[in-house]
Task: structure prediction
Amino acid sequence: MAKAENLLYLDGVSVSFDGFKALNNLSFLIGRNEMRAIIGPNGAGKTTMMDVITGKTRPDEGTLRFDGKIDLTAHDEAEIAGFGIGRKFQKPTVFENQSVRDNLKLALKAPRGPFATLFHRDDAAQRARIDELLATIRLRDRETDLAGDLSHGQKQWLEIGMLLAQDPELLLIDEPAAGMTDAETAATADLLREIARTHSVVVVEHDMTFVRALGVKVTVLHEGSVLAEGSLDHVSSDQKVIDVYLGR
Amino acid sequence: MTLRFLSGGLTGGRIVMLALLVAAAILVPVLNLALPESHPLHVPTYAVTLMGKYLTYALLALALDLVWGYCGILSLGHAAFFALGGYAMGMYLMRQIGTRGVYGDPVLPDFMVFLNWQELPWYWYGFDAFPFAMLIALAAPGLLAFIFGWFAFRSRVTGVYLSIITQAMTYALLLAFFRNDMGFGGNNGLTDFKDILGFDIQSDATRAGLFAASALALAGGLVIAVAITASKLGKVLIAVRDAESRTRFLGYRVEHYKLFVWTVSAMMAGLAGALYVPQVGIINPGEFAPANSIEAVIWVAVGGRGTLVGPIIGAVLVNFAKSWFTAALPEFWLFALGGLFVFVTLFLPKGIVGLAKSAVQRLRRMREPQTPGRETKTPREMAAARPSEQAAE
Result:
C-alpha cells in the first residue's frame, strides 16, 4: 500500500461557535514522523483544532485528510481513534478509580467491541508491552496504585503512556508540560523526542523553554489561522508574532 | 469458563453473599416444611414469602447497580423493566386459572369476559406455556431497554437528562397499562392466581419453592454481575462512568457499552419481576409508578453503589424497615425513607458496604502500624514537596 507523504492535511478549515470564528480558514500539513509544536495566545484555536481533528467538533467547511485518503470529517471519535490518532488532553485525564496498569490495559491496542472485551484474556505479549510502557513512563513501582493517587506530573506521563499503548500514527498532545517541575519538563521533552522517532507528534504548548527543548518546526496560530511557520528562532523574530503573542 | 471469568472479581464479601444465598435456598424451605410449627426454629410461611419478595427486590437493586454503580447511568425507571417481567409472569398465571375463574371461561381471563371480549388478543397467545412466558419476561424488558437505549445513548443523552427520560418512560407505561383497552387488566391488573407449573400457588411447598428460586436467581444474577464487572468490559464501563470522552478518544464506542449493560440489567430486572408476582399474588400498573424506581435507587445508595453486594443488603434492610414501619408507624415511613436517603448521601457516600470496608481497613492499619518495604511517597507528600506545581497552571 502506497503511503501518503503527508500524514495529516488540513485545508481551509473553519469552525464558528455562535458567530465567533474559532478556526478561520486554517491550513497546514504534518509529515510522517514529524514533530510539530503549535503555539499561540489563548483563544487562538489550538484546542478547537484538536477537537476538529479527533472528531469531537465538526468543521463548518474545509478539508481534513488523514493518511491521504481518510476524510476525518465523516467519522466520530471512536473511529478516528481506530485510524491511529491519539489525543492527550490539556488537563490530565486518566481513569482515576483504576490502577495504573489497568489504565494502560484499557488503552492498549486491541479489539474495542463490547464482546471482545467481555471475553478478553490477558496474554504474555500484552503484559510484556504494558511492562515496557510502565518503564518508559517511569511508573513501574506505582503500577498497582490507583491513577487518582498519582501526582500531577505522573498523571501527565501516564496519559502519554496510554497514548503510546494505543500505538497511534499521530499523537496530539495538549500542553504536556503544564504543572511540571523543570526536571520533569526536561524529561518530558526527551520522552517526546524519543516518541517522535517512530510517530508523528503535534504538541500544543505555552512554555517556550519546553518548545525550545523540543527543537522542532513551530506553527503559530492566531485568531484561528496560521500566522507564521518555521523554526522557533525564525518565528520569534517575525514582527507579526511579536506583536500578537511574544511581545505581550 | 465462568470460573476463569470470576477469578478476578470474587472477593471475600461476594463469596460470603453467594454462600448465604445458596444456604438460604436450601435451609429456609427445610426449616419451613420439615419442622413442626411449634419448633423454635420453624420459619412461618408468611416470613418465607416476605423474604422471597425482598430477594426479588434485591435482584432489581443488583440490576440497577450494574448500570448506575458501574456505568454511571442513573435510571429512575428500572421498575418498568421489573413490572414488564412481572406482567409476563402474570399472563402465564392468568392462563393457568382456566375454568376456575368467576365466569368460568376456559380461555379468556375474567377481566376480558367482563369487558365483553370475544377472543384472546394475539399478544396473549403462547402465555399458557411456562417456558414461553419466561422467555418473554426476559425478552420484553430486554427489547424495550435495547430500543430505548439505542436512541438515548446514540444521541448522547447523559446525566440528569437521561434520568428524566427513564422516569418519563416508566410513567408512560403506567398510563398505558391503566387503560382497559391494552388488554392487561387495566387498573386492577392481573390477580386471583391459582397455580404455577401445576402447583397450588398458596401452598407452603410452592411458597418455599418460590423463595428458593428467588435466592438462586439472585445468586445467579450476582455471578453474572461479578463476571461482567471483573472482565475488561467491566473496566471499560468504569472508564465510561469516570471519563466518558476520554474513553471515546481511546477508540471505544461508548454507546455500545452502555447499550450492552443497560439491556443485561433490564433483563435481570425483568426476571426479578417475574419471581415477584407469584409471591405477592398480583401485578397491577402501580408497579410502574415512578416512586418505585426511586425507592430502588435508595436501596442501592444505602447498601453501597458500585459494590454489587451492597445493593442486595440495602434492598433487604430498607424493605425490612418498610415492613416494620408500615405496620408500627405507617404515617412515618416516607419521612424515614427520605431521611435515610439524605443521611446516606451526606454521611455514607459509599453506603453500608463502603462503611464496612473503611472500618476493616482502619482495623488492619491499627494491627500493623508500620508497613515496611514501600519507599514511595504518597502523592500528598510529593505535592507538598513541590509547592510551585499548582501555581504553574
